[in-house]
Amino acid sequence: MDKKRLVSVLIGEGFICIIAFFLMKDQAIGYDSIISFPFVQMGYFLRILSLNSPFGNVIAWVAYVLFCLAPLILLSIRIRKGIQKSEDLLLLLLSVLLFFGMYYMINPGFAEGILAPSTLKGSWKIGVSSVVYIVLIGYIIMRLLRRIQTGMTDRLLIDLEVMLITFAGISVLALTFALPFDIMGEMKAVEAANTMAGIDFSLTHYFILLRSIIKMIPLFYQIRIILAGYDLVQALKTERYSQSVVDKAVQLVSKCRQAIIVTVIASIFINLLQLIAGAKLIHSNYHIDIPLTSILIVIMTMLLAKYFAHSSKIKEEMDLFV
């Protein structure tokens, strides 16, 4: 996928997320709703299917078993091919967790008092779903690390390309869907915590919105940095020792530096503004934003840019010598 097509896809994703936000803004969507998807929905569907008829009950059981056995099936395939690794044991753990968790998702009444106190109804769903996702993500990361360790350069560039596309998609989702819900949630939480009559929330809401815009800036630059990194990968795939690689690396450094400068200035601005208007604010939130990750990326990319430039120069000298 070339960069123009990737940008078009990301813009399309952003528009879809914005439309979805406006359609769903009156619904209580938070971390619990996102992290428990699709387990809660699947449990509800299987429960309805099971209670519908004896035949539906059989179908529900078959679907439940097949869904929970999926990691074990993948493990058995890898063992049969002789390509299993130590991290594949996580597939066994994942299958056990799915059997355990999905049973309670289908029969939520049995979970109260076992997985969570009866006073915290539904909190166990977040715990079960989180653990399943943690094991799944942990397995993917370990597989990826092994792939990076043993893979050839061309294969690694393709993997890096896929990772950058994935990170870009997640960043757009966070920027255009998750963050707006966080803004609404914070505003409602402030109002719920201050129920006295006659309180004017206008200025406080304005600062919540302003702080959220400040949060959007690093996400926006993160997408730009990912796209610059994608450009660099494309150049490396074409010709590793070309001047284009050096230019793309320099552009990546430039974007990382911009991200650091803008993030720091924006953080100083919002904190100073809050301090000045502090007496009129019902709720303040001070953050010290130090973009350590971006700083490290800048340093590493600068070193890589110098390495690419040096390698390109050596190759040119070798070509002239030959």
Automatic annotation (TrEMBL):
Q: Identify the keywords attached in UniProt to this record, alphabetized.
A: Membrane, Transmembrane, Transmembrane helix
TM segment ranges:
6-24, 58-77, 89-106, 126-145, 157-181, 193-214, 259-282, 288-309
This protein is called DUF2975 domain-containing protein
Q: Which organism is it from?
A: Petrocella atlantisensis
